[in-house]
Design a protein that fits this description.
The chain is of the alpha/beta class. About 25% of the residues lie in helices and about 20% in strands.
Amino acid sequence: MVALIALREPKGHVASQGTAASVGRGSTGGSSTKPAPSSTPHSSTSAPHKGSSNSEAAAVKSVPLIVLNNTTTSGLAKRAAERFEAGGWTVSRYDNYQNDIASTCAYYDPSASGAKQAAKALRRQFPTIKRVEPRFAELPEGPVVVVLTPDYSAS
């Protein structure tokens, strides 16, 4: 079954013709925009030192997330954003979204420093995020964009 999905949707998404982000046009009306952090995370130093893993984890978690609700569940993006923030992550925005996405995914911007590592760390911390993939054009710009689909759960 996985192979069929992969063949039908090789990159985990299908951008339907005429389908675009519905940011701000959802049924909840509860979108939120938070200011982005003023500094960008820096890569860790190559020389390990005491507390290095803690500072690396903090740097990864400082990469801002955008959380998008691609379901019919009202308020899901807000609840997920609060959950990620409680886990130490920075959420710059959450909103509704509409596109044909195969499963809950953390999309990262390949040109943003630390974005791929942050997306992978987020998935490790929250295994209900099924995949980590490079960002595609129809998504809002951001280092990491989490798109929630019906398979997302807060457990």
